[in-house]
Amino acid sequence: MSKISMWKASTSETNFPKLQTSLSVDVVIIGGGITGITAAYNLSKAGKRVAVLEALKIGEGDTGSSTGNLYCTIGDPGLHSIESKFSANKAKEVAESRADAVRFIEDRTLEYDIDCDFKKVPWNLFTEGNESSDYIEKEKEAAQKAGVITNSNICFPLPVTGFMVPNQAQFNPLKYVKALAENIHSDHCMIFENSRAVKIQEGETCTVETEEGSITAQYIIMATHTPLGIYFVQSSLAAYREYAVAVKLNSEYPAPGIFWDMIENEHYSMRVYDSPKGKVLMVLGEMHKTGQKDYNEECFDNLEKFLRDRFDVASVEYKWSAQQFKAVDGIPYIGLSSGNNKTYIATGFSADGLTYGTLAAMIIADEILGNDNPWAKTYDASRLTPIASASNFIKENLNVAAELIKDTLKKAEVKNFTDIQPGEGKIVEIEGQKCAASRTQEGELFAVSAICTHMGCTVHWNQAEASWDCPCHGSRFTQKGEVIEGPAIAPLKNINTKDD
Ligand SMILES: Cc1cc2nc3c(=O)[nH]c(=O)nc-3n(C[C@H](O)[C@H](O)[C@H](O)COP(=O)(O)OP(=O)(O)OC[C@H]3O[C@@H](n4cnc5c(N)ncnc54)[C@H](O)[C@@H]3O)c2cc1C
Q1: Region 9-28 average pLDDT
Q2: Ligand 1 atom nearest residue 173's Cα
């Protein structure tokens, strides 16, 4: 089964041109996910001349691999953690700003009559059985203090205990972002696909180059999920992969809704969707740090087992995975990056970024337009929060240091390319250089440098997705070494060697 998200497998492609010229605009936006396209909407509506550069197709980064849930609460680490690290007021700001962003999305679906299956549904957080958990009780209390309406009327086909928040929403994220792009595209709001930014220069005038064109602008927005290149904020971010499985059931489907089943301190997220293959139930979870799990196919197996243990599964229809970046203090970084005057960043959304990405676009557009935004300070990208972030900051940076040391000491996994079987990827040492060698299922061999072009860590084989993933900051590369996602900008160097 191909590992393409349900949304990508069932949504028709946009067809924007490739950048093949030199242009000058007010703002260049790198990345055409929900953050980039929403920022383009806001800025172009306000009269700015904008260009969006998307490396792939609109929405086909993380936006097109998400669950499509929109809610004012947050996932890990929860509103209660924001309250204990910062204050009850900060948790309230987070919930209110997120509610604003959900309303913004609903308004756009109405403004352009976007057919993206947007509907109001309840958000539910529970454990199975009759006993609540400490996490849920704390989260309920924090949500209520933040002004979020809660009740205990959870409607789910299994006995569960927890609370629900009415009036949240669900949609098809890919249909939404593609339709928004198609509606705003004009001479004043140019959108380019298959146009990867390969060189980015901030200055009095900023320049972004792609392979066949370039754009100069007054400001850059890095709407690339994590900023590309080396940024201070990367020491406060951790990259995780998470998995999704969508199945058909013989038994009763849950009603429309967002269902988070807490197992220990992580949640498995479930929802139903009327896909082109018929109604499916999806579950997302089994998170681990990018590039730090050897047999990650197991994550899909565990999700399937999770569903089979609870429902009568008829067939597995889709499997995919996606990346999330967690901020060490639990609050995203949105705005001018520290040390930059012209480059805006938007990152650290965890798995709540359809809403946070929309909010980021609202905040950044206001900052560029010189408008006050009530939430800008809450998410300030140049903030320092030593007390709130201390334990996670130390943990994540020790983890990066440990990966670097482990990689330096690590020996080659095999001696010869002939030791690599179809579907496998291994580190081989060629003339003292670490080489990431892999074979396709058909046996074709690819060999590239194993050293990540971002900060020099050794990439690890992701066997479920046939990619090379960096365990330090989450950059990912194809078997041929091409960048799949950043922060790396440059590909892994090709190693020209014969198949011995
Ligand atoms: C499993 C999972 C489920 C999730 N479910 C939800 C959910 O239900 N609700 C929710 O709110 N959030 C969810 N999220 C989080 C959400 O999907 C993301 O936070 C959000 O989509 C981020 O949007 P973005 O526009 O910032 O990034 P992206 O959608 O990743 O867009 C960034 C774009 O930048 C492009 N790009 C990268 N490098 C370059 C370059 N050099 N040049 C040009 N373009 C470039 C990429 O191709 C990409 O299209 C989920 C995350 C995961 C992992």
Answers
A1: 96
A2: 21
Q: Which residues are CB-neighbours of 305 under 8 A, at least 6 positions away? A: none
Measured in Å, residue 327 CA sits from the centre of ligand 1 at 15
Q: Is 36 in the pocket of ligand 1 (CB under 6 A)?
A: yes
Closest Cα to atom 35 of ligand 1: 31
pTM (2 decimals)? 0.95
Q: Are strands 258-263 and 119-128 parallel, antiparallel or unpaired?
A: parallel
- Please, what is the average pLDDT of the chain? 93
Q: How confident is the model at residue 413 (pLDDT cuts 50, 70, 90)?
A: confident
Give the model's confidence band at 338: pLDDT under 50 very low, under 70 low, under 90 confident, else very high.
Answer: confident
DSSP character at residue 151: B
Dist. CA 123–CA 31, nearest whole Å: 29
Is the distance from the beta carbon of residue 486 to the nearest atom of ligand 1 less than 6 Å?
yes
Q: Encode pLDDT of 184-205 as tens digits.
A: 999 999 999 999 999 999 999 9
Give the ligand 1 atom nearest the CA of 323: 53
- Find out whether the beta carbon of 487 lies less than 6 Å from any atom of ligand 1: no
Closest to 354 in 3D by CA, of 153, 184, 104: 104
- Dist CA 370 CA 356 (whole Å): 21
For 38, list phi and psi in degrees, rounded to 5. -70, -40
CB of 458 sitting under 6 A from ligand 1: no
Q: Ligand 1, residue 243: give the atom nearest the CA.
A: 1
Using a 10 angstrom Cβ sphere, with 0-12 exposed, 13-18 middle and 19 or more buried, the burial of residue 415 is exposed
pLDDT, tens digit, for every residue of 97-136? 999 999 999 999 999 999 999 999 999 999 999 888 999 9
Residue 354 CA: which ligand 1 atom is closest?
Answer: 11
- In the chain, the percentage of residues whose pLDDT exceeds 90 is 82
Report how far ligand 1's centroid is from the alpha carbon of 33 (Å). Answer: 6
Ligand 1 centroid, distance to 60 Cα (angstroms):
8
Residue partners of 492: CB distance under 8 A and separation at least 6: 436, 448, 449, 450, 451, 452, 453, 459, 468, 477, 481
